[in-house]
C-alpha cells in the first residue's frame, strides 16, 4: 500500500505542479469506509463474517491501487480513519479534498451509510458544482447496485448515482477480483486525467487569500487557533505550511469554532487585514448543500435561476451567494431595492434595473443585445432581492422581467419562512429547512465576526 501523502501544503510552493509531491497528473483521493464495525452496526441480513470479508477485499484493492497509480503520474491520498457516531470530521483532510484532481469513491455496503464517506463526498460534489477541476469516479463494489446508491444519502442528497459509476466486471470479493477492479479503475483514470495544467479554482483562490492573512501571525497564534478548531496537535506539528492548512481547515469547521479561532488571530493583524479576513470567513455559516443549490442555478441549463432563503436579512442572502462562489471576485453579488406594494411592477423593475446597471458598471443606454453580450463575459451575476412587502405575484413578475433584461443572472429571493411567497410561487429553496434557530445562529455569527473588524451589525437588523 502506498504511504499517505503529506498535507498538500507541505509541497514547495515555488515548484511547478508537475514537480510536486502530487505527481504529474495530480492527487487521487481514495474515499472508502475501512473502520471495522460491531455486529449491532451492520444492516439487516448482514453478518460479521461478510463484513470482515469486505474489509479484507477493500484492503487488497487499496493496496493494488497504491501500486498501479504512482507509475502513471498519480499520487494517492489514503486515509485510514473512519467516522464513528459523535466524532468530528478530521479538519486537515479538507486540504487533500480541495487539492485532489480526481477522487475514487469506493462504495461497498459499509460506505452506503458511512458518515465519513458522506462528508468527503459532500465536499467533492460541491467542488464539482462550483466548477473546480475535479474528476469523480464512484465505484460499486460487491453486491451494491445503482438502486442501493440511489436510496442511500449518497444518492438522495448528493446524486452520486447520476455520475455513471464504474461497475467492475468481476463483482466477487477475492484477491483476483481486487486486482482486476484496480486495473479497471486505473484505466479509467488514465484515460480521463491529463497531466497537470492550471489548477486554478475558486476554492483554491479562497485558501490562497485567507492563508495570505494568516501568514502574518506568529506560529504560536496559529497553533492556538488550530487547537481551537480541533486539529490534532501531532499532525499540526508535522504540517510545514501552517497558514494554508489552517485556511483549508476553516472550510470544514463549525462557524462558532471559526469565530473562536479568529479571536486568537486578529490581535496580530492590522485593521485592513482583519476586515479582509472577516469578509472571507463570514459566509462560512452557509451549509455546503445550500451553496451547491445556489451555484447549480448559475448553470446555463438551469430551468429556473431563482433560489429562495427564508429570511429578511440582506446580509444573509449575500452570504449565501458568497459561500457558493467562494468569494471569487470574478462573480458579481449585489443587493437590489426591496420589492414593496406601493409601486407598480414597472416602477419596481426600473428601480432594480438602474441599481443593477450601476453596480455592474453598465451604461443605462446599452441595448438588450449589448447587455446580453456583456453579461455573457461575466462568470456569474447573483442579485439578492427582498420580496415580502408586496404580493407574491408582483414579486414573481419583477423577477421574471429582470431575468429577461439581464440574461443569466441568478436571483436570491428573501422572505420570512411563513410568507405567502413560498406557497404561491414554486421557488427552489437553498435549504430544505432553514429554521428560525438556524437563522438566529447565522445572524449571531455574522454580527460576532463583524465586530472583530470593528463593524457593528445589530443581530436583529435586516440590512
Can you put this structure into words, describing what you see?
- With 463 residues, the chain is α/β, with parallel strands linked by helices.
- It folds into 3 domains: 8-192, Rossmann fold; 202-284; 288-430, Rossmann fold (3-Layer(aba) Sandwich), CATH 3.40.50.
- It has 19 helices and 9 strands.
- The chain has helices spanning 48-68, 93-99, 115-129, 146-151, 153-156, 175-192, 202-214, 219-228, 233-237, 242-250, 255-265, 271-281, 288-297, 314-325, 345-359, 368-376, 392-405, 420-424, 436-452; strands at residues 27-31, 75-78, 102-107, 135-140, 306-309, 331-335, 380-386, 410-414, 428-429.
- The strands form 2 sheets. Strands 6-7-8-5-9 form a 5-stranded parallel β-sheet, covered by helices on one side. The chain has a 4-stranded parallel β-sheet with strand order 2-1-3-4, sandwiched between helices.
- Helix 17 links the parallel strand 7 and strand 8.
- Helix 7 (202-214) packs across helix 10 and helix 13 packs across helix 14.
List the helices and strands and how they pair.
Layout: E1 27-31, H1 48-68, E2 75-78, H2 93-99, E3 102-107, H3 115-129, E4 135-140, H4 146-151, H5 153-156, H6 175-192, H7 202-214, H8 219-228, H9 233-237, H10 242-250, H11 255-265, H12 271-281, H13 288-297, E5 306-309, H14 314-325, E6 331-335, H15 345-359, H16 368-376, E7 380-386, H17 392-405, E8 410-414, H18 420-424, E9 428-429, H19 436-452
Parallel strand pairs: 1-2, 1-3, 3-4, 5-8, 5-9, 6-7, 7-8
Helix pairs in contact: 1-6, 3-13, 7-10, 7-12, 8-11, 11-19, 13-14, 15-17
Amino acid at each position: 500500500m502506498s504511504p499517505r501523502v503529506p498535507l498538500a501544503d507541505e509541497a514547495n510552493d515555488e515548484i511547478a505542479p508537475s514537480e510536486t509531491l502530487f505527481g504529474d497528473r495530480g492527487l487521487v483521493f481514495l474515499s472508502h469506509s475501512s473502520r471495522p464495525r460491531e455486529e449491532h452496526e451492520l444492516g439487516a441480513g448482514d453478518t460479521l463474517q461478510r463484513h470482515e470479508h469486505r474489509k479484507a477485499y477493500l484492503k487488497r484493492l487499496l493496496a493494488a491501487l497504491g501500486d498501479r497509480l504512482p507509475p502513471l503520474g498519480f499520487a494517492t491520498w489514503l486515509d485510514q480513519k473512519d467516522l464513528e457516531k459523535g466524532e468530528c470530521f478530521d479538519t486537515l483532510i479538507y486540504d487533500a479534498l480541495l487539492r485532489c484532481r480526481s477522487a475514487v469513491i469506493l462504495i461497498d455496503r459499509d460506505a452506503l451509510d458511512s458518515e465519513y464517506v458522506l462528508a468527503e463526498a459532500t465536499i467533492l460534489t460541491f467542488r464539482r458544482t462550483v466548477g473546480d477541476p475535479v474528476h469523480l469516479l464512484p465505484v460499486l463494489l460487491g453486491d451494491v447496485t445503482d438502486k442501493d446508491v440511489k436510496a442511500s444519502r449518497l444518492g438522495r442528497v448528493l446524486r452520486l448515482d447520476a455520475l455513471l459509476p464504474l461497475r467492475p466486471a468481476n463483482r466477487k470479493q477475492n484477491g483476483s477480483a481486487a486486482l482486476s477492479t484496480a486495473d479497471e479503475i486505473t484505466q479509467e483514470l488514465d484515460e480521463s486525467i491529463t497531466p497537470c495544467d492550471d489548477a486554478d479554482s475558486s476554492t483554491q483562490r479562497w485558501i490562497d487569500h485567507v492563508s495570505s492573512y494568516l501568514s502574518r501571525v506568529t506560529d504560536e497564534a496559529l497553533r492556538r487557533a488550530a487547537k481551537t478548531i480541533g486539529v490534532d496537535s501531532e499532525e499540526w506539528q508535522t504540517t510545514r505550511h501552517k497558514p494554508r492548512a489552517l485556511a483549508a481547515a476553516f472550510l470544514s469547521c463549525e462557524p462558532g469554532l471559526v469565530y473562536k479561532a479568529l479571536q486568537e488571530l486578529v490581535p496580530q493583524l492590522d485593521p485592513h487585514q482583519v476586515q479582509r479576513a472577516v469578509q472571507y470567513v463570514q459566509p462560512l455559516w452557509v451549509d455546503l448543500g445550500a451553496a451547491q443549490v445556489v451555484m447549480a442555478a448559475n448553470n446555463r441549463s438551469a430551468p429556473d435561476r431563482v433560489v429562495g432563503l427564508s429570511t429578511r436579512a440582506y446580509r444573509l442572502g449575500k452570504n449565501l451567494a458568497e459561500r457558493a462562489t467562494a468569494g471569487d471576485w470574478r462573480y458579481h453579488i449585489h443587493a437590489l431595492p426591496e420589492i414593496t406594494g406601493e409601486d407598480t411592477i414597472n416602477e419596481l423593475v426600473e428601480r432594480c434595473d438602474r441599481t443593477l446597471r450601476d453596480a455592474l458598471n453598465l451604461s443605462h443606454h446599452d441595448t438588450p443585445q449589448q447587455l446580453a453580450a456583456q453579461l455573457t463575459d461575466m462568470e456569474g451575476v447573483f442579485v439578492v432581492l427582498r420580496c415580502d412587502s408586496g404580493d407574491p405575484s408582483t414579486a414573481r413578475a419583477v423577477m421574471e422581467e429582470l431575468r429577461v433584461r439581464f440574461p443569466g443572472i441568478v436571483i436570491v429571493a428573501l422572505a420570512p419562512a411563513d410568507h405567502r411567497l413560498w406557497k404561491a410561487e414554486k421557488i427552489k429553496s437553498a435549504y430544505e429547512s432553514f429554521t428560525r434557530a438556524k437563522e438566529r445562529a447565522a445572524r449571531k455569527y455574522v454580527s460576532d465576526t463583524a465586530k472583530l473588524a470593528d463593524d457593528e451589525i445589530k443581530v436583529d437588523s435586516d440590512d
